Amino acid sequence: MASKVALITGGASGMGLEVARSLSSEGWRLSILDMNQESGEKVAKSLDAKFYKVNVTNYDELADAFEATWQEHGRLDFVFANAGIAGDESFYSHPELDSKGRPKKPNLLVTAINIDGVISTCWLAQHYFRMNKKPLGGVIVITASCGGIYPVPISPIYGASKHAMVGFMRSIAPRMIKDSIRVNCICPGTVRTGLLSKEGWETYPNEAFTPIEKVVEVVNLFVEDETLYGKAAEIIKNKHYWQDAPPYSDEWMALTMKACD
Ligand SMILES: NC(=O)c1ccc[n+]([C@@H]2O[C@H](COP(=O)([O-])OP(=O)(O)OC[C@H]3O[C@@H](n4cnc5c(N)ncnc54)[C@H](O)[C@@H]3O)[C@@H](O)[C@H]2O)c1
After folding, report:
1. Residues in contact with 234: Cβ distance below 8 Å, sequence separation at least 6, in sequence order
2. Which residues form the signal peptide (predicted)?
């Protein structure tokens, strides 16, 4: 059988890179998408993969990379919607004022990358998965965060972006399964990657870090286990826990939400 094909955003470092390495060792063909050209090219060379310099907030660049992947392989099996940033601006700092004395617009790069970029990635994945002949469909794993389950007062825009992705995954999964597309998300605790600086990581408890291998294990589980869709996996240290949507408070809410199915 021909090799399976994966497309990974943010594949030049951290979790994206480790998932790429794992899939490559299993014989997958890979498209690595990242803004970081230098690392991306190095990674692609080492994994006999294709690198595409893509900023996920640029829809044309993203769509070109999907199309090029399809043209090269004629199928697509797995999309890891993983590119993301933490952002380093404090939401609470006193804002600079513009010439009219109003607070300047907040920096919303985090939502552009972590929300808009992931939505565009899933939008494109759906299109190409529907064109697969045999096997039909495909798998999407979205990288959310523990900050998509629990409040993040220190970084509320990041928290909002990751809550959005848990909600987005839960919303699209029951629909996309009808096209044999399984969508799940991962919600890791702290993992030592390039997301933060060395000093940034020092503000988190050393004993609670999650090994990157555990993240790769859960992503592989989502890729392989055909029964899994609509699941949010909280990952902490060497464990993972399913975080299901809260139950409806009463029959009226159940009825209301049924209308949104
Ligand atoms: N490291 C953690 O503790 C942790 C915990 C929970 C969730 N996450 C999430 O994991 C994902 C991966 O991050 P990581 O921890 O591996 O960090 P990382 O910085 O090592 O990797 C992120 C990669 O995404 C790329 N990237 C960033 N913005 C991009 C853009 N606009 N377009 C294309 N590529 C872009 C970066 O160049 C980098 O290669 C992110 O979504 C992050 O929010 C990380």
Report:
1. 146, 149, 187, 189, 240, 241, 242, 243
2. none
Between the two ends of the chain, the Cα-to-Cα distance in Å is 37
- The mean predicted confidence, pLDDT, of the chain is 97
- List the 181-188 sheet strands across, edge first: 50-53, 29-34, 5-9, 78-81, 138-143, 181-188, 232-236, 239-242
Q: What is the CATH number of the domain that holds 47?
A: 3.40.50.720
Is residue 167 within 8 Å of 142, Cβ to Cβ? no
Q: Which domain holds residue 186?
A: 5-258
Q: Which of 52, 128, 158, 229 is catalytic?
A: 158
pLDDT at site 1: 62
Residues in the chain: 261
User: What percent of the chain clears pLDDT 70, i.e. is strictly above it?
Assistant: 100
- 135 falls in which pLDDT band (50, 70, 90)? confident
Q: Are 24 and 96 in contact (CB under 8 A)?
A: no
92 a catalytic residue: no
Dist. CA 93–CA 96, nearest whole Å? 9
Q: Please, are residues 168 and 142 in contact by the beta-carbon 8 Å criterion?
A: yes
Q: Does the Cβ of 59 fall within 6 Å of ligand 1? A: no
**Nearest protein Cα to ligand 1, atom 14:** 14
Per the structure, the count of domains in the chain is 1
